[in-house]
Amino acid sequence: MASRIREDRLFVSGFALIFFLGLLLANPILISASAIPLLIHFLVVFIAPPKVEIGKIDLPSSAGVDETVEVRITGKIAGGPGAAVIYVEVPEVFQLVEGSNYAVVSKGFDEKTFDFSYKVKCTKHGYFRLGVGLESRHVLGLTLKEFSFKESASLMVLPTLPRVRKIRVPLRMKLKTHPSGSIAKIGPLSTDFKEIRDYSFGDPFKIINWKATAKATRRREMYPMVNEYEREGKLAIWLFLDGSPDLRIGTSVKSTSEYSVWLAYTLSYYFLSKGYSLGMSIYNHRGEKLHFDTGRKQFFKVVERILKLTTSQDGLDVAWDFGFSRSVERNRKWLTTQATGIVVITHVTSSNWADLQDGLRRILIYGKGKGKHNVLLINVLPYNIVPKTSDWEIFAGDMLDTTSRSLSERLRHAGLTVLEWDPTEKTVETALLNTTRLR
Fold first, then answer.
1. Alpha helices, DSSP H only, in 26-175?
2. How far is CA 195 from CA 133, 186, 198, 223, in A?
3. Cα–Cα nearest to 74, from 34, 103, 45, 110
């Protein structure tokens, strides 16, 4: 609107300047020429610029890392003659492998359709937005419709799911340690009666004890009473995932945070596919957590949470929640009553060492008298991911790597089980298989 007003003022000012200059000089040629700006102005007003309408943005809703995706754009161009530019925003971490993500279409007075496509390679997991930008220009080249993103489509890129054969959560309890045969405190209801309790939101109606409810009503208790039965099923695993910005060590495509998310994705799929109940907390992010649940529905919830840790533009969306120790305290109820195994995914450094120590100490305190908790800490080592251009950078990376490994060793001496994973040396399948040999 503002550009249109400026153009109107320009044409009127041009007409007035030439016209009065012709009068001043008594020059009929200048007076006649003053009509040219007015004529152009009327053409601009009465001949509308092209109007672009996006019909469809065709692309899959999800894809895997390193998968090639085809994006197809269709639509039509109405309005007057001119040219239109259709541009599809490609995330900077994607690779354009075929075609072009923009098209220039010219039209006359008749309506015209357009259809173009291109292919991109998804090199990073996460949620990505592909916005469609539109720009149209009048046939006279004087009126430019402002460039804007009016349409968009979203693409969810999932990490590659490795074929993990076996994971051992190192337990020092009187329970089996493999997911294929372990029993837990949470799972489907059995027929073994446990107690009568108040009704909680979400309880199935079939377990309501109507006789006990009638007696409670006489005592003016308005809530139904339900029968509580013992649970049967698999082990309950609580997963702690570090969402700290310190984990962005590496490149824009491969970094510690990327590998940590990939690891959480893999572990979640593995345990849930084995019938485990899984809960999760993402610390150093927003304090997000998922309560214990099982099955595909829980897996999709986990995927939704962890993929939001990385975005195509802003990296990690950080809102501090005071770290691992605070997260352990917030989830104390679940750790003490249901969690029989705990997995922590982080990168151990001198900056988060005190916080890790305090949080792990709390976990061990909570487990006293109930058998020790099963704590597996996975230390993702990122320093070989970082490209190095000098001997000093190589030396600094080796020093930081040695420091992280020495801190891991101190945790081992404290009785915890620690798995060190360097993505450049081992695949995630090999690294997780090594858990069967850890103490």
1. 28-33, 35-46
2. 62, 16, 10, 16
3. 103
Measured CA to CA, the distance from residue 22 to residue 113 in angstroms comes to: 47
d(CA 388, CA 163): 32
Residue 212 is encoded by which pair of tokens? 């006990």
For residues 397 and 383, the answer to whether their CB atoms sit within 8 Å is yes
Contact 82, 49 (CB under 8 A): yes
Q: Which tokens is 216 given?
A: 């409670």
The Cα–Cα gap between 378 and 385 comes to 17
The span from the CA of 417 to the CA of 170, in Å, is: 7
Between CA 111 and CA 118, with CA 117 as vertex, the angle to 5 degrees is 150
Say how many residues make up the chain: 439
Tokens 């485990």 correspond to 276
Full pLDDT tens readout for the chain, 439 residues: 555 556 556 666 766 777 677 667 777 777 777 777 666 666 666 666 778 888 888 888 888 888 899 988 888 888 777 788 888 888 888 888 888 888 888 887 788 888 888 999 988 888 888 888 777 776 666 555 545 556 678 888 888 777 766 666 554 343 334 444 444 444 555 555 667 888 877 778 888 888 888 888 777 667 788 887 655 555 788 999 998 877 888 777 788 888 888 889 888 888 888 878 899 999 887 777 888 888 888 898 898 888 877 543 444 444 455 689 988 988 888 887 777 788 999 999 988 899 999 998 888 887 664 545 578 899 998 888 877 778 888 888 889 889 989 998 998 888 788 888 888 888 777 777 766 545 4
Q: Would you say 222 and 254 are in contact if contact means Cβ atoms under 8 Å apart?
A: no
DSSP per-residue letters across 17-33: HHHHHHHHHT-HHHHHH
167 phi, psi to nearest 5 deg: -130, 135
